[in-house]
């Protein structure tokens, strides 16, 4: 080996070492920032961050795996037959496996789900840093872009409520593959641009592996990734006047689709054996419009912004815009890109429309245009009354929340912003101010340009994080803990009073898994709260709508109280749990009638919202 070759190898090794150190640094910095954004020092690890709504469904998944080993069937729910969730599949197998792994160490569903959400932040920034480096951004730009993407408002707004959407850490790798198709670096049929044979093989294998992993992230991210792969493949085919880039994108899309079908196969086989159940979930054409993307929601500030006048702007928009978008929990609320993401979005569109190619900015303009074309494609698909309205019937409305594409738009936009950041540095700052300093008797070079650029990036990054992390990023720890402990105390008293394995019939009957209008003040999945606190009791809630067990529960719950008690006793139930919030009169009438059949004094929850009657 020559001296020059040895120096080159040493330099590469040193460069990789610096990159690895920066990758670990970006993960560590992300955790530190997260602790301040969410006030993690206030959390109780055994109390979930979110204890309401859809979060309860995902908490149930974690507890089911702790109690039964997996989540598809749970004998503690849906009594007497047991809950079988094949009609309502959760194909996000990668997330489920991570939850399963964490639960092996914690043994507690709340700690498992809290740790899972926390881990998604450094995992997202670490993978994003790797992907952006691979896309030829500088270390500084990759670092900043990765941290910004990890803290996009979508992350904490989805939170535990839609935790399988908050876990978008695989998407930067999807961007890497999309851009390799778009740039011509990845082609399964001929040589990629400027690649050796070994490099081409490695690129192809890694693309296939990434596609397979994307298929494990669920329907939405799989579908959107396929969409952007096809856009990139079609764009590259147009540039090259060849069909092979488009065919390459189709190969990756087939891999993703095949993997997704494999994840759904238990449910598909279950439906073949037991018949298709159209009543399990209700999806209608209107949903596509209701949960569509709005450009205003992308560009306006996040709800509960830390700066008062920006919060006021968003509040006014929420109050005065169309009534279907007013809800703070509406899907489109999570679309906000933040100031820096919005800047990247606008830059990408500007490049697509106006930039003229010149020798000094040709590559920058090309990359920006590619992000612009991806963003425009996303908007055309997902915007209200966009092409999603034509796609929805083809997929039986199973993909309805097209506003979720905003997390891809955020990725394209942040990448675009970092491209411009690197361009400005390379064109106007690099090596402009270089001097030297004497230290310990040695003269050391000092690149003031790099220091200035780093300082500016840090300041802008801090401002961007401040802008993106609204006040709602902080969970309401105190209120959640109070409600959680109230339910825990009630269930603990019930478990002391009832033998192990006792079946409890829950009133009023609430449809599972979804119901458009829950009984009175109850919310979807609220009955899961009692299961989450119990160890050996069996609950009726969880029988899937459209199946025989649910039909029986619904019929029995509508009977006259005396007849209902006789019917459920014959089925093996020994107690009733009445949620008073489910009745307009607070349950006064039903409790008075059921009291005649009580075998002992009722057990009432500390807040009076739940009453257990032994029969």
Keywords:
alpha/beta; 615 residues; 24 helices
Structural summary, described in words:
The chain is an alpha/beta fold. It is globular and about 90 Å long. Mean pLDDT is 90; it is low at 1-7. A five-stranded mixed β-sheet has the order 6-5-7-9-8. Strands 1-2 form a two-stranded antiparallel sheet. It has a two-stranded antiparallel sheet with strand order 3-4. It has helices at 3-37, 55-68, 93-106, 109-134, 139-150, 153-158, 163-166, 171-183, 197-214, 219-240, 244-274, 285-290, 295-299, 308-320, 338-354, 362-382, 388-391, 406-429, 448-468, 477-497, 528-533, 548-557, 561-570, 588-594, and strands at residues 73-74, 83-84, 434-439, 442-447, 503-507, 538-539, 573-579, 603-604, 610-614. The protein is built from 24 helices and nine strands.
Beta-strand residue percentage: 5-15%
What percentage of residues falls in helices of 4 or more residues? Answer: 55-70%
How many helix segments?
24
Give the strand line-up of the largest sheet. 6-5-7-9-8
Write down the Rg. Answer: 27 Å
Q: What structural class do you assign from the helix and strand content?
A: alpha/beta
Sheet with most strands: 5 strands, mixed
How far apart the termini lie comes to 87 Å
> Uncertain segments of ≥5 residues (pLDDT<50)?
1-7
pLDDT averaged over residues: 90
Number of strands: 9
> What coarse outline follows from CA principal-axis ratios?
globular
């Amino acid at each position: 080996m020559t001296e020059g070759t040895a120096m080159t190898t040493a330099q590469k090794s040193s460069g990789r070492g610096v990159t690895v150190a920066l990758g670990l640094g970006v993960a560590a910095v992300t955790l530190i920032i997260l602790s301040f954004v969410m006030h993690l020092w206030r959390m109780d690890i055994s109390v979930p961050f979110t204890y309401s709504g859809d979060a309860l469904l995902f908490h149930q998944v974690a507890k089911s795996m702790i109690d039964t080993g997996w989540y598809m069937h749970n004998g503690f729910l849906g009594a007497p037959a047991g809950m079988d969730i094949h009609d309502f599949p959760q194909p996000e197998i990668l997330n489920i496996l991570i939850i399963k792994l964490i639960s092996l160490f914690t043994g507690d569903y709340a700690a498992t789900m809290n740790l899972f959400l926390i881990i998604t932040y450094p995992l997202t920034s670490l993978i994003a840093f790797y992907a952006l480096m691979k896309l030829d951004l500088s270390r500084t730009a990759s670092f900043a872009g990765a941290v910004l993407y990890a803290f996009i408002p979508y992350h904490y707004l989805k939170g535990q409520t839609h935790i399988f959407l908050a876990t978008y850490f695989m998407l930067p790798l999807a961007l890497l593959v999309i851009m390799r198709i778009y740039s011509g670096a990845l082609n399964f049929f001929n040589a990629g641009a400027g690649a050796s044979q070994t490099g081409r093989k490695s690129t192809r294998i890694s693309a296939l592996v990434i596609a397979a992993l994307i298929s494990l992230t669920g329907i939405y991210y799989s579908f959107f990734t396929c969409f952007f792969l096809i856009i990139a493949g079609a764009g590259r085919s147009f540039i090259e006047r060849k069909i092979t880039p488009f065919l390459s994108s189709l190969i990756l899309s087939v891999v993703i689709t095949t993997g997704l079908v494999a994840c759904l196969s238990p449910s598909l086989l279950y439906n073949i054996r037991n018949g298709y159940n159209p009543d399990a979930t209700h999806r209608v054409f209107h949903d596509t419009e209701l949960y569509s993307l709005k450009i205003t929601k992308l560009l306006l500030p996040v709800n509960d912004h830390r700066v008062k006048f920006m919060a006021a702007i968003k509040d006014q928009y929420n109050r005065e815009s169309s009534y279907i978008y007013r809800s703070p929990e509406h899907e489109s609320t999570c679309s906000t890109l933040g100031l820096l993401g919005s800047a990247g979005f606008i830059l990408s569109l500007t490049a697509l429309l106006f930039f003229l190619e010149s020798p000094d900015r040709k590559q920058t303009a090309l990359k920006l245009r590619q992000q612009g074309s991806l963003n425009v494609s996303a908007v055309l698909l997902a915007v209200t009354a966009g092409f999603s309205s034509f796609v929805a019937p083809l997929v039986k409305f199973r993909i309805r929340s097209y506003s979720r594409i905003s997390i891809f738009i955020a990725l394209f936009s942040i990448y675009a912003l970092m491209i411009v950041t690197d361009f400005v540095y390379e064109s106007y700052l690099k090596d402009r101010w270089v001097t030297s300093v004497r230290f310990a008797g040695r003269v050391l070079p000092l690149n003031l340009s790099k220091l200035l650029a780093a300082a500016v990036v840090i300041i802008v990054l801090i401002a961007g994080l401040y802008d993106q992390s609204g006040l709602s990023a902080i969970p309401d720890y105190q209120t959640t803990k109070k409600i959680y402990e109230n339910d825990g105390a009630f269930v603990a008293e019930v478990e002391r009073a009832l033998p192990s394995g006792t079946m409890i019939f829950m009133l009023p009957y609430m449809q599972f898994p979804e119901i458009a209008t829950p009984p009175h003040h109850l919310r979807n999945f609220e009955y899961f709260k009692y299961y989450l606190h119990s160890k050996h009791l069996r609950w009726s809630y969880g029988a899937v709508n459209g199946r025989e067990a649910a039909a029986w529960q619904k019929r029995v719950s509508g009977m006259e109280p005396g007849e209902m008690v006789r019917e459920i006793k014959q089925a093996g139930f020994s107690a009733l749990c009445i949620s008073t919030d489910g009745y307009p009169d607070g349950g006064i009438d039903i409790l008075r009638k059921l009291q005649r059949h009580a075998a002992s004094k009722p057990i009432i929850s500390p807040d009076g919202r739940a009453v257990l009657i032994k029969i």
